[in-house]
Each structure stands twice: as structure tokens, then as C-alpha cells.
Amino acid sequence: MSSVAPDAERDEKETGRIEAFSDGVFAIAITLLVLDLKVPHSSELPPDSRLISALLKQWPTFLAYVISFATILVMWVNHHRLFNHIRRSNHTFLFLNGLLLFFVTFVPFPTALLAEYIRHPEARVAAAVYAGTYFAIAISFTLLWRYAAGRGQLLDARADLSQVEAITKQYRYGPPLYLLAFVLAFVYVPASVGMCFALAVFFAFKGSPKQIFAPQSGEDGRIKP
Amino acid sequence: MSSVAPDAERDEKETGRIEAFSDGVFAIAITLLVLDLKVPHSSELPPDSRLISALLKQWPTFLAYVISFATILVMWVNHHRLFNHIRRSNHTFLFLNGLLLFFVTFVPFPTALLAEYIRHPEARVAAAVYAGTYFAIAISFTLLWRYAAGRGQLLDARADLSQVEAITKQYRYGPPLYLLAFVLAFVYVPASVGMCFALAVFFAFKGSPKQIFAPQSGEDGRIKP
Amino acid sequence: MSSVAPDAERDEKETGRIEAFSDGVFAIAITLLVLDLKVPHSSELPPDSRLISALLKQWPTFLAYVISFATILVMWVNHHRLFNHIRRSNHTFLFLNGLLLFFVTFVPFPTALLAEYIRHPEARVAAAVYAGTYFAIAISFTLLWRYAAGRGQLLDARADLSQVEAITKQYRYGPPLYLLAFVLAFVYVPASVGMCFALAVFFAFKGSPKQIFAPQSGEDGRIKP
Amino acid sequence: MSSVAPDAERDEKETGRIEAFSDGVFAIAITLLVLDLKVPHSSELPPDSRLISALLKQWPTFLAYVISFATILVMWVNHHRLFNHIRRSNHTFLFLNGLLLFFVTFVPFPTALLAEYIRHPEARVAAAVYAGTYFAIAISFTLLWRYAAGRGQLLDARADLSQVEAITKQYRYGPPLYLLAFVLAFVYVPASVGMCFALAVFFAFKGSPKQIFAPQSGEDGRIKP
User: Fold this and answer.
1) How far, in Å, CA of B44 to CA of C15, rounded?
2) pLDDT at site B210
3) Is D14 part of any domain?
4) ipTM of the complex
5) Quick check: A30 contacting B, CB < 8 Å?
6) Facing residue for B88 by CB, picked from A33, A41, A223
7) For chain A, what is the domain count?
8) Given this model, what pLDDT does residue B215 score?
9) Residue D192 belongs to what domain range?
10) Is B23 in contact with C20 (Cβ distance < 8 A)?
11) Facing residues of D185 across strands?
């Protein structure tokens, strides 16, 4: 890996920029989800009906909103987890990150699609597009990480190899599991949607607290002296 | 709390990142509120009617817009106030912050709901959802702060304990007072909405100028030499 | 002004945060303007009519878009110009800045209103709301600057007093001139709209290149050695 | 260029601010594109028709979305590429950057226009507006770079002149090639749209990996020791 000292500051600035742009995209995508929640028009509400039941009838929209919010949040956490170990950038890396962001900004569309069709005979197609989007995100994450770490060329020289290996191991499960969620969409929609939510939880916690945002912390989450 | 010197820079960078992402979400949520303000279509305006009265008829939308803007602004100020004292992060903290952001991004929906139903027989439900959202935000703020400060594990070693205590004391009032606003929604809607606005003012000023953004300043807001 | 050395870094970090949040709000408000541009539905376009004329008929929307974009851009430049001289923050300053951001995020609404009504008998009301919004922004800018500089308590100790005085002098013109644009709206709409645009140009250039973003540069815009 | 040491830090801070604001605008513009993707209403879907074919019928919207996302991403990469060499700012530069951002925030409109009209007899006008917007962006990029580098006054004193020259050379092609895409719109729409996509690829790769984000790296994208 040789000495990178004189360029280290510039490198860190460059990955900092990519992170700042990515953070902006994640923050906007996660906030735009709320635009899918539609207020029932007061003029369309029959005079003796209740607003509360009109809202409760929208449960698929709220469910899709919650799952998508949680998933984008977990993806943001994972994105930073990768960048904790990455210190340099190049052209290919930049566009692999762009590919990931492409699917992240796309998430509001399958979310709205799932909400619209979850109680419709065509629910399976909507669930397949939903799980398929997350499958594409899992592939993009894996490509990004494999490229950065696989040839070892973009990692921080001080990166803890056991943590790098742990991420590589965890990411091995992403694509096949999201592919399974995609296939499940054609069999039983609730199983597919439930699996997407379970995978968000998996990627939130599987990477154990130790590896996220505090690589140097001990088992109890306290910073070691 | 032991020496954290070698990790201090990395810690500060990590909380800086969480703040930057949170700032993005606050900035977008506060700016999206304007999308709820609808321009009356010129073709629907009867030729002898006045635009000014068509706009004034929309007062509930403008009122809800102003209250929500003020509340999100105050929440942003409070978020930074907390992060003035927090220097480290861990997994749980990250997701508690995510929970808070979830309800912040949700605010445009109850705002639009309240604006649509405030003059409708179902106004109480809309006001309850509105106050309930702020109740959830108060709970999230309290959880976030209690977790960071309660076990004292994420605070800056140099944090002024009297200020930490003052925040803890103030946050004790948040959940019960917003719960009261929620209950009031079923009794008298204007009281509930007015209380939400009053609480925004309370959380803006109760924490006295000393504790916000200038912990070292004196009573008169001037920086002490 | 006494020595602020030990707190200087923290102060700069605090104003940096306010700037970052404000930048986010400016960036979102300026980008949301495009949502007012509506694509004419292809199904509503008569088969023998031209798309180009359907687009040209929308000229008020494009005009309002251009003026609002230019004005928000100039306001962003001016916001930074102020923060070049401001190094500390306190509670009042924070909420005066929030007041300014409130009117900035509001801009997309009067922009859409003006575009909808500029060829309607009620155009004067729309133009008055439009100019009135900029009047409120001018007031907010003046309050923010007067508070920071007037009692001199938030300025950088190294701030060039002649520049500070120049800003104060220029800002004296903002509120009365925008008030004039507001009054003009009831007399002759094109004069009011034209004046809003002219004032954006005035605030872009009046403050001469020297004072914006490169206080140390010479007459020719070159950095002095 | 004389010594700029005492002002170097301030200069870098100033261009950093312009970059941060520009990044915000790019991030929002790229994320807003998804709002053009419309979910087909379930109530309008005939009971025996398939959701998948309803989605596939929307291919022009998805195509326009992909091309616009790719183009904005490439523009963001190029914007940073320029700022790698720029260290100072002045008034004119600031407004040239604003002109560029104006056309970037405009992109969602021609994207929606192209998607709506690509299968309509008026497709040529839509494609002309689409290519014309990118032509305007190419002109703005060239103006921005020529101003910064042409008189050499805003570049980093340490900027590698061969890289500066390479950018200048590449940017010579932008305006005439996008003008060709604009003219092609009136001849054969797919050729114009295809050329816009090809030019995004050209500007992504023509500037060879060496010059983007890792000026010091060798042919293989690895950082040189």
C-alpha cells in the first residue's frame, strides 16, 4: 500500500465530498417519502363517516412508508460504515456509488406502487418491483464494497482487517436473500414484504454495534480508553 | 470516563456526520411544508370574486404552515443544543436519532391534515394526529437525550453538568405536556392547537439563551471575555 | 470586544452550523421552484396545435421562475456576505435567522400565485403578495444584520468596519424600495414585477465585488498579495 | 501569482461553501427526478389487464429518468473536477456558477416534457427543449471554467497545468456537440436523445480517470506512492 502521507489529506477531503453528496441524496430521498401520504379530501368524506377510519384504510401507505424509511435509514448507516474504512476514491468507485444512489432515489416509486396495489390482484407485481429495487441496492452495495476492498486499493491503510472481513462476509448474504424476497413476491406477498423489513433489521444489527460508527468501542458500546 | 484523546477527533467527526445528515433532513422537512400551500386556480375563481378573500379563506393552511415551521425550527435548535454536549455515538444512539427524524419527516402530513379538517366536524381527529405527532417527537427527544446523558456515556467529557441537568429537567415536561395537548384535541380543538404553538415557544425560550449555541455567554447574551 | 481566543474555534463552528442549515434551506427552496413548471398534457393538446405555442403561453410561469431563482440566489450570496463578518451567535440571532428562512421557504408560493394570476383581473393582488414577500425578506435581512452589527456584539473582532458600514448603508434601501414595489403592485403590475427584478440586480451588484466572498481582493477582483 | 499564504485558508473556505451549496442543489435536483414517475392508479387499471404492461408502457418516463440521472451525476462529477483546481472566488464567478445551477435545477422540467411527448407528433419540440437545456449547461460550464482558468486568476497556484489544459480542451467539444444534438432533434428524435446519453458518457470518461478526484493517481487508477 506504500506511503500515502502527502496525499492523505486530499484523499480524505475527496471521500468527504462523496459522503456529503451521498448524505444529501439519502436525506432528500428519506424525506420525500412523506409526499406519498395523501390527506383524504374533506369534501369526499361522507358526513356520517369518521376521519379515523378513512386514515386507517390507508394502512398500506403507512406500512410502506415505515418500511421504506427504515430501509433507507439502515442503508445510510451502512454507507457510512463502508466509508469509515475507505479513504481514497477513483473514477470507477465514483460511478459505482452513483449506481447505488440511483436505486436509493428510486425507492419512493416502488414504495408508492406497493401502497397502491397491496390489496389489488396485481399485488405480486408491485411487491416484486419493491423487493427487486432492494435487490438492486444490495447488488450495488456489494459491487461498491468489493471494488473498494476486494483489490484493497481504496481502503484506509489503518483499516482493521477483521472488520473489513466481517463486512465482506455480511454482504455475501445481501443479494441472495433479497433475491429470495423477490421470488417470494410471486408466491405470497406478505412474506416478501415481511422479508424486506426483516432484512433491514438484519443489516441494521447483524453488523454488531462494534463495527458501526465506533470501531474502537468495546462490547458494551463504551469507548475503550 | 477515562482519556479519550486519541479517539477524540474521530468521535467528533462521527457526531458531525450524524448532525449533517440530521440537518439535511430538518432543512428538507421545513422547506417541503410550502408544498401544502395551494394556489387557488384562476379558472375556479368566479369573475366578480376577489383573490384576496380566496386566499384569506385558506387561513387554516397558513396557520398550520406557520406553527409547523416554528416547531421544526425549534426542534432543530434543540437538536443542536443536545449535540453541543454529545461527542460520541453508538449503534443504539444512531437508531434513536433515526426514530426522531422519522417523526420530523412525518410532520408535513399531520400539518396538511389539520389544515384540511380544522373547520370540519372531524377536526378533533386531525388535531389529535397533529398533537400526537409532536408527542411522539417529544418522546423521541427524551429517549435520545436520556440514552446519551442518563448513563453519561456519550457526553463530552468537558460538558457542563449544570447545563446537562437543566436539559434533563426541561425535557421532563415535554412528553406530559404534549400528551395534554393530545387529550385537549378531543375536548376543544383551538386549545390543543394553541398549546402546540405555546410549547414550541416554551422549548424555544425555556432553555434560556445561556444554554443554546453559546454555552459560555452571560445573562445578557453577550459572550463573556 | 475583549479576547475571545479560547472560544473562537467553537464560535466559528456554531456560525458554521447555522450557515450549513441555512444553505440547505436556500438550496432546497431554489430547487423546488421547478415543481411549479407544469408540462402540458399531451392528451389536452389539440392534434393540429403546436407544443411550442403551448409552452410559450406559459411565459408568466417561466418569468416568475427566473425572477424567483435570481432573487433567492442573490439572497444566498447576501446571506454569506453577512456571515463573512459574523463570528458568534446567540438565541435571538438564531430566531431572526429562522424568520428570514421562513420567508425564503415561502417564496415558491407567491411565485406560483403570480404565474397563475399575472394575466387575470386580480393580478394586482398576486403581485402585491409577491412584492410583499420580498419586502418581508428585506425587513428580516435588515433586522438580522442590525442585531448582529448594531450593538456590534456578534461581529468578528477582525471585521473591516468600512465594509460593515457599507452593508448597513446598502440595507437601509432594502425595506423602503421593496415597500415601493409592493405599493406599485396596486398601480401597475409590470412596474412592480420589474422593480422586484431590478432590486435583485441591485443587491447582487450594489455591494460591489470587493465585499462579497473576497473581502481582501482589489478592484479588479484579483487577490492582493 | 504571488504569495497567497495568509489568505489561503479563507479562500479554501469560500470555495468550500460554494461547493457545499452547489452539492445541495445537485443532490436535490437529482432526487426530485423520481417525482416524475407516476404510479398507475389501481382504479384505472382494467380488471383483466396486467400491472406489468401498464408499467412497461411508461418506458419513456423511465428512459428519460435514467438519462437525466446519469447526466446530472456526470455534471456533479465534472463540477468537482473543476473545483479541484479552483481555490478562489469572486463576484462574477459566483453568478456564473449560479447560471449553471439555474439550468441544473431546470432539468426535471425538460425530462418530464420529453417523457410526455416522445411518442407524440410533437416529440421534436420536446427533444429540442431537452437537448437545448443540456446545450445551455455546456455553455455555462465552459463560461465558468474559461473565466476561472482563462485569465488564470482563480486557479490553485499548485494546479497541474497539463490537467488544466486537458479540461479546457475537452470543454471545447461540449457546446458544439450539444448544439448538434439540439439540431438533430428536428431531424430524428432518437438520434438526438441517444446523443445526449452518449455525451454524458463522453464527459464521464473522456476526462480519463487520472483527472477526476485522484489527480495524482497513475494509469491503473491506483494511487502512486
Assistant:
1) 47
2) 43
3) yes
4) 0.78
5) yes
6) A223
7) 1
8) 41
9) 5-34+54-211
10) yes
11) none
